[in-house]
Fold this sequence. Notes:
The complex is a heterodimer. By secondary structure, chain A is α+β, with helices and mostly antiparallel strands. Chain A folds into 2 domains: 174 residues, no CATH class; 168 residues, no CATH class. In chain A, strand 7 and strand 8 form a beta hairpin. In chain A, helix 2 packs antiparallel against helix 12 and helix 11 runs antiparallel to helix 12. By secondary structure, chain B is an alpha/beta fold. Chain B folds into 2 domains: 162 residues, Rossmann fold (3-Layer(aba) Sandwich), CATH 3.40.50.300; 53 residues, no CATH class. Chain B has a 6-stranded mixed sheet, sandwiched between helices. In chain B, strands 2-1-4-5 form a 4-stranded antiparallel sheet, covered by helices on one side. In chain B, helix 5 packs parallel to helix 6. Chain B starts with a strand and ends with a helix. Chains A and B meet through helix 1 and helix 10 of A and helix 1, helix 2 and strand 6 of B.
Amino acid sequence: MMNNRFFGMTFKGVFRRKTRSLLTILSIVVGIMLVTALLMVANGLNTQFQQLSGGSGADFVVLDHSSDLSSSRVNASIENDLENMDGISWVSGMVISTTNIGDRPFAFVMGVQPDEKSVEQFGIVEGRTLQSGDTGKVIIGRVMATQEGLKIGDTLNIKDKSFEVVGIYETGVTTEDGGVVVPLGEAQSLFDLGDQVSMLQVKVENIDQVDAIRTQIETRYPQLLALKGSEVANQQADLQLINSISSLIALIAILVGSIVVMNTMIMSVMERTREIGVLRAIGWKRRKILLLILKESFTISIIGGVIGIVLGIVMVNLLTNLAKISLNLPVTLDLVVGVFLITIILGILGGFYPAWRASKMSPMEALSRE
Amino acid sequence: MFLKTVNVKKHFGEVKAVDGVSLEIEKGEFVSIMGPSGSGKTTLLTLLGTLDSLTSGDIIIDYENLSSIKDVDTFRSKKMGFIFQFHNLIGYLTALENVELPLHGLMSIDKRKAKASELLDLVGLKDRMHHIPSQLSGGERQRVAIARALVNDPLLVLADEPTGELDSSTTQKIMDLMKKINQEKNITFLVVTHDPEVAKKTGKIIILRDGKISREELVKSASIEDIITLKNSTLGKQLLQKESGDPYLEKLGLFKEKKLTREGELLLSLFEKVEEL
Lengths: 370, 277
């Protein structure tokens, strides 16, 4: 039976050794904080990549098998081929790369043909968009403009080349809004791409035919992939690495956390041999002793977990602000529930063995003389 | 018979801690178990308290044979109360919370609280309910332990050296309190002790030696005061004056045909020795 007083007892039990319990909680806080931060980054990046490739209203994108978006290369000639395929409405080539701009360690530089569809995803809020024939002109994202203090008419250096800011856009995708858009040709020369692009955005005439057309493209060009937005993220090696690392850290956090909790609880149980003996003698059943200890380890891990989640969120926000990285890393319900689940698993793993040992203790201990 | 043991044995390998104890205790009796260390007192208490299993024999408590009870934890929690030598209160809980412990899961929080404070009131600790054990004196702690032992309205209270850690005046008070509760509530008390002063407060003394009940020890345990009391009684005075006026002197075999018997002379010499002390 759950009730306040029993939980009151749990709390008092946990904090009968204040320093030890606080240190145990601290170690869980550190673990859970790291897990939260890493999962936030991984989730945020996944979402960003899904948005990156879908803003123009394209149904899917075509890129090569390379491990990430900025190293993907697609020959310009394929753009013409695809445009002539049945069922395709439009095809738009795009360069996506990253470089440092000003004191920002990394920013997206995107190259689009001003007369093609892909430029339309960058909704202009000030100034004008890129036009055919523009050279040395750039439009910049709202976030970039604010953080770098840039206005229309200012000059921006990208890889030692000067560009004039002609417009400011806003897409709502923070990585895009923290980046810049230059005419395709200039992007190709900035990054030595020749006439290649990073990817092609493709819009079909009839949405029912998307999968058929994707298959058709992949069959005709085995070196290419035709991916929907959600699939692009899965294709990114960096993202996969971040995903694996965060899973690994989560596992390590569970393991280390459980060991720490277990150690603390075993010590606690050993010290309380007589107490447990007394409880058994006055009629507490084994199951109740088991619950008593489990509740204590749960309390420790949940306190640590809650603080860890909060600090993890704070840490990520502080770091992205400090490093001026334009990344929108939202705190989702899934993430919080997931990390909380990790905390609960940790509590069970760490508490079960000590609780089991406690439940096996004899009521005779209450009578021992020493 | 409320409590009965039949040839109870508890052997730990070669060690015969309890070796064939048969005893009968009526409901409401206040019994002490004495004996030298290693005589099996505490082991007998653990057997009666269902804390340990028997090697052989039978224990019947409240008309139930312990060997036929499946859930001894529940039996214990409903019918028994325990008082230990080192009060054994839980240090991080208040007096009230300690007293409540046996009631966990048996009734609502409010009822538990009411019941526990009623008992703390009974043992005279109403004002100290929210103190933790380290804020209480030794005697107060043992009072809390007594309240805890009584909170489940037990039929039998088993106490293991309940005054072992207390000074003699506190010991008196604790024994008086237990005696009062024994009489008012008709609860059977079984107290393991090595202190004759404690045993004297009880209605019946059982002496154990080498795991067996010893009658010889019962006589040995009579205190010097008991002999002086006897010496100063009407019977004692007549014996001292070697007059056989009282017919009981003959019935007890101290006199035969108005002459002192050997037993009579032995008792007389005992009285004279007491005089010399």
